[in-house]
Automatic annotation (TrEMBL):
It catalyses: D-arabinose 5-phosphate + phosphoenolpyruvate + H2O = 3-deoxy-alpha-D-manno-2-octulosonate-8-phosphate + phosphate. One of its GO terms (cellular component) is cytoplasm. Residues 13-262 form the DAHP synthetase I/KDSA domain. Its EC number is 2.5.1.55. Belongs to the KdsA family. It comes from Paenimyroides viscosum. PANTHER family: PHOSPHO-2-DEHYDRO-3-DEOXYHEPTONATE ALDOLASE (PTHR21057). Pathway: Carbohydrate biosynthesis; 3-deoxy-D-manno-octulosonate biosynthesis; 3-deoxy-D-manno-octulosonate from D-ribulose 5-phosphate: step 2/3; Bacterial outer membrane biogenesis; lipopolysaccharide biosynthesis. It is an enzyme of class 2 (transferase). GO terms for biological process: lipopolysaccharide biosynthetic process. This is 3-deoxy-8-phosphooctulonate synthase. Keywords: Cytoplasm, Transferase. It is found in: Cytoplasm.
């Protein structure tokens, strides 16, 4: 896809990777704006194309009492307000076919969660909005099998597609990233590596997903080194008290340092 088709995306002439970054879920306007402003300041300084991320609803939860959101329209309006005030594109994930048209009125990129990427009706509904569609590779799928998900979007006359690797299940409580999958999926579409979800540790006895945020830098550096087009990172100024996925999020205070290192690696990689 041509990233220029994403409205308001900046710094495309910098030859940098792009980043989808933000909190796991929109918990409220104040927190979302606080994170967005910091991310935009940093990515503008480093000339990294940014798409601000925030889930308007969390439908895939381990327990019925887990946080699911502040209200669909309320959260989507916050994303729209961030886009308008900061002139930045936004992305959110959708879970049902009926979500597609609703979310498309507020955001620039529709994301299909990994567990749902084989759901044809959902993928088609997203594609038919004409928005850019980010297809997250199922934890149970090979990189090569993503060509079929991509083809579903293409068959809807929508060429604005990216695919995202978020790790592959390895045992009951862990995932691995197979970096051979990056060039494989680049044969089909612009390819993103989801750093933080690749470090999740699901299926914990408590019903709350764990994670390895200490390995975020390791996985991100490797992704940039093998030439991934973009990276996906969930970040929060207080991960310990985040209402969703706090165990694997990057602390916002560490975002700039990580981006500086990744930009340096990217500049080295493109020389060869």
């Amino acid at each position: 896809m041509n990233l220029q088709n994403i409205p308001n995306i900046k710094h495309l002439d910098s030859n940098n990777f792009f980043v989808l970054a933000g909190p796991c879920a929109i918990e409220g306007e104040e927190m979302a704006f606080k994170i967005a402003e910091r991310l935009i300041t940093i990515t503008d300084r480093l000339q990294i194309p940014l798409v601000f991320k925030g889930s308007f609803k969390k439908a895939n939860r381990s327990r019925i009492d887990s946080f699911t959101g502040i209200g669909d329209e309320k959260a989507l309006k916050i994303l729209k307000k961030i886009s308008k005030e900061f002139n930045v594109p936004t992305v959110t994930d959708i879970h049902e076919s009926t979500d597609a048209e609703m979310a498309a009125a507020y955001v620039d990129v529709l994301q299909i969660p990994a567990f749902l990427v084989r759901q044809t009706d959902l993928v088609v509904a997203a594609a038919k909005t004409g928005k850019t569609v980010n297809l997250k590779k199922g934890q149970f799928m090979s990189p090569e099998s993503m060509k079929h998900a991509v083809q579903k979007v293409l068959d809807c006359n929508n060429e604005n597609i990216m695919v995202t690797d978020r790790g592959t299940m390895f045992g009951y409580q862990d995932m691995i990233v197979d970096y051979r999958g990056i060039p494989a999926m680049q044969n089909y579409a612009t390819t993103v590596l989801d750093i933080t979800h690749s470090l999740q540790q699901p299926n914990q006895a408590s019903g709350v997903t764990g994670g390895r945020p200490d390995l975020i830098e390791t996985v991100a550096k490797a992704g940039i080194a093998v030439g991934v087009d973009g990276i996906f990172i969930e970040t929060h100024f207080d991960p310990a008290n985040a209402k969703s996925d706090g165990a694997n999020m990057l602390h916002l205070d560490h975002f700039e340092s990580l981006m500086q290192k990744l930009v340096a690696i990217r500049q080295t990689v493109i020389k060869f």
